[in-house]
Amino acid sequence: MGHGVEVVRSGEWWAITVPSLRSVFSQARHLDEVPAAAREAIAMMLDVDPADVGPIDVHVQDQGGGF
To answer: What residues have CB less than 8 Å from 40, skipping those under 6 apart?
Structure first.
């Protein structure tokens, strides 16, 4: 079973939320680090090994900055 995660830029970091697990939040400095950070946070919440979390589907949220 995989998990969808939403990320939004917050200063120099990417803020990560997991909509299916309301209490799971994390952050990553670089976008390519998001899946690993999300996997670790989900594993901690579910008390499982990170390898058992499954695929992470990253959805980048538009901040609507109009750039």
So the answer is: 26, 50
Query: Would you kindly state where each structural domain of the chain is located, as residue ranges?
Result: 3-60
10: helix, strand or coil? strand
Q: Which of 40, 39, 43 is nearest to 56 (CA)?
A: 39
State mean pLDDT over 14-19.
Answer: 96
**Cα 66 → chain centroid:** 24
Q: Is 30 exposed, middle or buried (0-12, 13-18, 19+ CB in 10 A)?
A: exposed
- Which pTM does this prediction carry? 0.87
The class level of CATH for 3-60 reads alpha beta
